[in-house]
Amino acid sequence: MGEIFKPGVKLSSAVCKTQIMALRVPASELDVKCGGVPMQIGDPEQLLDAVGEMSGTLVGKRYVDEQDTMEFLCTRGGEGTVSVNGKALDIKQAKQLPSSD
Amino acid sequence: MGAREALICGDARMTFAELELSARCVAANITQGEKLGFLAEASPAFPAALFGAALAGTQFIPLNYRLSVEQLNTQMQRIAPAKLITDKALSIDKIIPIMPHEVVNGAPYPGDAPDIDGGVAVELFTSGTTGDPKSAILRHSNLMAYIFGTVEFMSAGEDEAALLTVPPYHIAGIAAVLSSTYAGRRMVQLPNFAPENWIALAQKEHVTHAFLVPTMLQRITEYAGDKLDLPSLRNVAYGGGKMPRATIEKAMDLLPHVNFTNAYGLTETSATICMLGPEDHRLAHSSHVPAIQRRLGSAGRPIPSIELQIRNIDNQICAPEEIGLVYVRGDQVSGEYKALGSQLDADGWFLTKDRGFVDDEGYLFIDGRHDDVIVRGGENISPGEIEDVLRAHQAIKDVAAIAVTDIEWGEAIGLAVVCNDEISDDEICALIRKNLRSSRVPSVIKRMNALPYNETGKLLRRVIRDEFTQD
Fold first, then answer.
1. Domain range for residue B400?
2. How many domains does the structure of chain B reveal?
3. Are the beta carbons of A101 and B272 separated by less than 8 Å?
4. Taking a contact as any Cβ pair under 8 Å apart, which residues of chain B between 144 and 173 contact chain A?
5. Are B396 and B289 in the same domain?
6. What is the pLDDT of residue B455?
7. CA–CA gap between residue B34 and residue B72 (Å, rounded)
8. Residues of B with CB below 8 A from A23's CB?
9. Residues B257 and B126 grouped into a single domain
């Protein structure tokens, strides 16, 4: 079960304050979860109990899958772990560009 | 982050938390349905207004305070109804002026920025060097794509400070506020550029980063002579016009510890799309291989989030070294104007109207604006090739080649020359004939005291063309 997302879409965790924004996503169905519970568009009214990993997210960090087919930006940090199709995302080791302005 | 110092302007200093509060005060001044104009020099009200407009869900429209009253009146009528941050006394229908120091005070707007799909962030009048200014539309999605594509959140060290000299109505001025804020870098504003003030402020505030247009860097190096004492400075980015080779070489020699980056971009592309980085600069500066050496005059390679193509007149992709038109594609590219709509093609490509070519490693060389090409008897002549030959001569301080109407050829070459030393028309023509072809020899030469540039260092060819037609 999953959904096709467009870049720019913001997803909120159902188990913590985490919010992520899709920067780069494949045009295929993705099952995005945080703390083991599906993430949703818009904040939940009430938080649910986590059923998965809770290693935390950090605001401003980029998260990618192992094959680097997708990239999400954490726009609000929390306690849950973000996973896509069952695999946890990792913090991208950003290669910084020189300052251009 | 809120406790970090965000902004220094004269004696005023504020933290990021205080900047947010100022932005909320600006937002509280805007009534539903109004836009936010800005007609003033850079001050703390500028970043506050840029973010305040977004909070209020409207667009930020900076105007060029150096334009004539008539030009400004036309532009202001185009943005009404609006609140206008300005210290000028104005009376224009549906434009409500507020002073810059007043707009950042009062009761703050408490809400969050509305998250509207396709929301417009900035409307920017392009410089209009080739015609009447057009109003470029930059959406939040464009500016966000630029920032997320080029900057890391809170990546700046506590010691970092950026010296901002580009005015609010220039895309580089807006991009600098967005990048600095996202990186958590202190902004030091210098509203009125003069080389001695720039150097003094860079020393006083231990500035580490700066962006300059070529004219500014040229004036700094001329003023400095053979010594420039800026130990804190680490990064200088430049763009907004063609950088004379002698200027960048002199700057690199004066500041050997500084990383120089050439940033090529347009208003319509939300600032930088190509970069020539510090390593490219050093390699080109020290190389004896002509193909590497000339990269000091290159716009660099596209940033990772941008695709670039050079296409010929038949819309075919050009081979390396072949001159064509520069096309770009990426989420930061708006390519959209008010009233005209999107100018992107069906596949999302934007024609920059710059001419250029890439070398075999993908470095982009800009050859000038497509509209500036002189078509003499069906042959396309780039002003740049003529200007480069003449500029290398010690007697010539500045030069511009433009198209003049010609009965025989349709167009012919007019040359506007500013001299350091005596040089006759015959000598100028002989110099061109010797280095280029005879078709590049001008039919009219006009001596001028100085060439007209706009305040960000762009040559106003239109003004020169007008001078030639008046005679």
1. 373-470
2. 2
3. yes
4. 144, 148, 150-155, 162, 172
5. no
6. 75
7. 18
8. 148
9. yes
